[in-house]
Write a structure and sequence with these properties.
This protein is mainly beta. The chain has two helices and 18 strands. The radius of gyration is 22 Å and the shape is globular.
Amino acid sequence: MKRIHTMHFARTLSKTAAAFFGLVLATASHAAWDTIPQIELSASHDDNLRLLPDDLALPPNVDGGADSMTLDGRFRAAFAGERGNLFVEPRVRGEQYSGEENEDLNGTDTFFRMRGDHEWSQTTLEFALDYDQQDIKDAEVTDSFPDDPDIEDPVDPDTGLLIIDEDRKRLFVAPSLDVQISERSSLVFASQVLDVSYTGAEFEGRVDFTDTEVSAGILRRVDGRNEVSARLIGSEYAADLNENVTTTFGVEGTFERALARDWSFNLQAGVSRSDYSFLNEQLQTVDNADTSFTYQLGFRQRTERNTINIDLSRDTSPNSGGFLTLRDELHIYVSRAMTQRLQGEIGLRGYASETLDDVVANDERDYWRMDLSMEWAMTEQLFLNGGYAFTEQQFAAESTDASSNLIWLGLVYRGRARQ
C-alpha cells in the first residue's frame, strides 16, 4: 500500500513537470534559444571490470579486465525568457566490451535531464527532473566528477554489488517554491521523489524502492554576503522486498557566506529521528527507531580559470540494499583552464556507509574513487581528451579490498553556444 501511494505521488509530480514545461514555453515566446549537440567516441581499458576481490584467484584463461568502445551522444537545449528559464538534455550512450564473457555488458543507456524556473512578482517556482535507465555496472560505481559543479547531484543509491545483466531505472523529481514575504525573507517549500527499480535478472541483493521528502522553511538574506535558513523535513523510504518503511522527521539549519571575491562557504546542520519497520530473514517484523545528527560543510571557488568544490558531509540516504543508510562523505572537485586550449580536472570522492541503526552490519561499505582528466581543444568544436580513474571499495563482510584501474582516450565534437 505504501508503494502504491508513493508511486502515485511520483506520477503526479511527473505530470506537474510536464505542466511546468508547458508553462515556461508558453511564457517565453521571446526567449533566446541555445542548443549544443555533443558526440563523444572513446576507448578504455579497465583491469578489474567487475570489482572482484584483489586476492581472488581467477582461472588461468580468465582475465578480470576488459577493453571497451563507447559512443555517447547528447543534445542540450536551453532558453532564457523574461521570467523563465529551461534546460533540457536527452542523452544516449552505447558500450561494446571485448571478450565473450562480457557480452552481457554490451548495451545502450538512456538519460533525460530537465531544469527550469519561472518567476512571478513575489514567487519563484523551480523544477528538476531526471530519468535514466542504465547498466548496473555504471549505476553502481559512483565517479567523482559532478554532472554540474554548481548543482548538487542526487545521491546515487549504490551498493557496489556488481551483478551483471541487470539495469537500473531511476526517476528523480524535485519541485520547489520560494514565496517572498519581505524584502529579505522568503518562505521556501520543496518536495522530491526518488523512485528506483531493477530489471533483467533474478533478485541478487537489490530491491526496488522509493524515497519521498517534503520540507518547509524560512530563508533570510541578512545582507549582501550572508544568508541563513531553517526548515522542517519529513520523508518516507519504502523498499518492496523486505517491506521496509522508514519514516523520518527532522529540523535543519543552513548558513551561507561569501568569504572573498572568489570564495564562498556554506554550513548545514540538523538532527532527525527515523522510525523503521522491516521483515528480517526469518520473516519476523523488526520495529525500532534511531536518531541521527547530519551536517554538510562546503567551500566553493569560482574564477575565470578555476572551479573548486570541497564538501564534507554526513547524511541519511536511500540505498538499494533495502534500508536507509547513514553516509559520511568527502568530495573534492577541481577544474582548471591551464591555457586557452588545455583544461584539466581532478576529483576525489570517499564515503563510508552503514544501514541506519546498523541493523545489517554486512552492508557497511567503504568506497574511494579518484578521477583525473585532460581535454585539449584541437579546434573550436573538436576536442581530444583522456584520463585515469582508480576505484577501491571494501565491505564489512569481506576480508579483502576490491580495486580497479581505468584508462581512457576520447574524441569529442561539441557544438558552440550562440549566447
